[in-house]
Amino acid sequence: MSEVFQELVRAITRVIAGRPLDPALQDWLNETHGPTSAWFQQVQQACLDGIAAGWLCNREAEGIRYGRVVKPSPDSAQFSVDVVDMNDVVGPHHMHPAGEIDLVMPVTPEARFDGTAAGWKVYPPGSAHCPTVRPGRAIVLYLLPEGRIEFTRVA
To answer: How confident is the model at residue 153 (pLDDT cuts 50, 70, 90)?
Structure first.
């Protein structure tokens, strides 16, 4: 994993540690670390570089490339960091016991992750969804408090 990627992740996890996962956090992240920020552009490039180098999104299932690149630790403020590369696909249903913070980076300009264009989407604790990218391709970096996620089956 690249040192640049690690430092960019540490920079964001440090500033969000301890904050409630709610609409106010989503708004703040989009204002301070949104698509026009240098941080966003650096993370997007680091993700593209990591995918090209083969250390990021190096697993695949059902058309989704993915990988956990950081386990929860004091260095990441107890967030895990996963990155997925999705192209016109619906992912597996899951629940976020402690919430989920997603950074959406469209590769195809019109791509949306759960309806969100480039930027941040914050899911509160106890929320659940089938992550969906349509139309086109997007890379999504997601932060999970304590790495907590529960994959579920939808009836």
So the answer is: confident
Tokens of 25: 């956090």
DSSP for 1-68, written as a single string: --HHHHHHHHHHHHHHTT---SHHHHHHHHHHHSTTSHHHHHHHHHHHHHHHHTSSS-EEETTEEEEE
- CA nearest to 86, candidates 61, 68, 69: 61
The parent domain of residue 105 ranges over 3-151
Whichever domain contains 118, its CATH number is 2.60.120.10
Tell me the C-alpha distance between 56 and 15, whole Å: 24
As a whole number of angstroms, the distance between CA 147 and CA 149 comes to 6
Please, which residues bridge with residue 123 across strands?
A: 100
Model pLDDT for residues 90-110, shown as the tens digit of each residue: 999 999 999 999 999 999 999
